[in-house]
Amino acid sequence: MAAQHTAFASDFDGTLCWSDWTTGEQRFDPRDLEAVRAYQQAGGLFGVCTGRPLSSILESVEGKIELDFYIVMTGSQVFDHELNKLWERVVDRDVAQELFDRYASPEAVMVAVTESQFVSVHDRMGSALPVVASLSQMRGDLYGVSFECAGDRDAARAICADINERYGDVVSGFQNLGSVDIVPVGCSKGSGVRVVREAFGVDIVAGIGDSYNDLPLLSAADVAYTFGASPAEVRGEADVVIETLADAIEDFSERIS
Questions:
Q1: How far is CA 44 from the centre of its chain?
Q2: C-alpha to C-alpha distance for 211 and 167, rounded to whole angstroms
Q3: How far apart are CA 13 and CA 178, in angstroms?
Q4: Strand, coil or helix: what is 178?
Q5: Which among 54, 84, 243, 246 is most buried, taking Cβ atoms within 10 Å?
Q6: Which domains, and CATH codes, for the chain?
Q7: Are strands 109-113 and 85-88 parallel, antiparallel or unpaired?
Q8: Neighbours of 49 (CB within 10 A)
Q9: Which pTM does this prediction carry?
Q10: Whole-number Å distance between alpha carbons of 26 and 173
Q11: pLDDT tens, 149-169?
Q12: Which of helix, strand or coil describes residue 132?
């Protein structure tokens, strides 16, 4: 299979980038970046598949790496290299308000994203993000909301299950270790992969991720990778367990050569 008909979709945090949320410092492994560039130079497409908004990714990768596509907000938005919008869905504002009223607490802080804002809502824990008092202060469409559960995986799992049971006809919740990402129903990291596959005429897609919200990404990929430290359920969905992103890219490049 010719390399130009392949794509590699990578989770961002904990896979391509490691972030210290207390200091804002972000680290990229030079070996990973070198492997990405080599794969792209051979004709492959490389992009991210993340719960972060586009603005955050653009700021993080500037001067470090060029991306061919962006699956952001857990699949509610997809962009190409030139930032043309390939896919978009929004969260109903009334539903988002109901989610906030039901689940927000000092231990479960809501984070909400519009085209121009990425904020915590009524945060009583001291977030590094800008804080607004309520969703009514936000202008524009909501592309996703999440609940940061202070690293409590059990709390995140419970909130995620309850959201999907109560609101599953309009939104989907995806656990990301100690947090929950909520996007319009029909959106996921897997749906984002399918948009990329169709938009670019890709024949073979590789995917890599390290958390529960990456399960749809791994399921949609033709070759799925994860790490030895990933949760057992994630390792079970992967075709190959590796140590680094560079190892995954090298394995995939050998498979398609």
A1: 20
A2: 23
A3: 13
A4: coil
A5: 54
A6: 3-88+188-256 (3.40.50.1000), 93-184 (3.30.1240.10)
A7: unpaired
A8: 33
A9: 0.93
A10: 26
A11: 988 999 999 999 999 999 999
A12: strand
